[in-house]
Amino acid sequence: MDEFLLRNETTLRLGFFFGVLLAAATAEALVPRRTRRLSRWKRWPGNLGIVVLNSLLGRLLLPMAPIAFAVLCAERGWGLFNVVAVPGPAALILSVILLDLFIYLQHVMVHAVPLLWRLHRVHHADTDYDVTTGARFHPLEILLSLGLKMSWIALLGAPAAAVLTFEILLNATAMFNHANLRLPDNLDRGLRLLLVTPDMHRVHHSPHPHETNSNFGFSLTWWDRLFGTYRAQPDDGHAAMTIGLDGFRDPSEQRLDRMLTQPWRGGAEN
Question: With left for phi above 0 and alpha for psi between -120 and 50, is residue 211 left, alpha or beta?
Answer without folding.
Answer: alpha
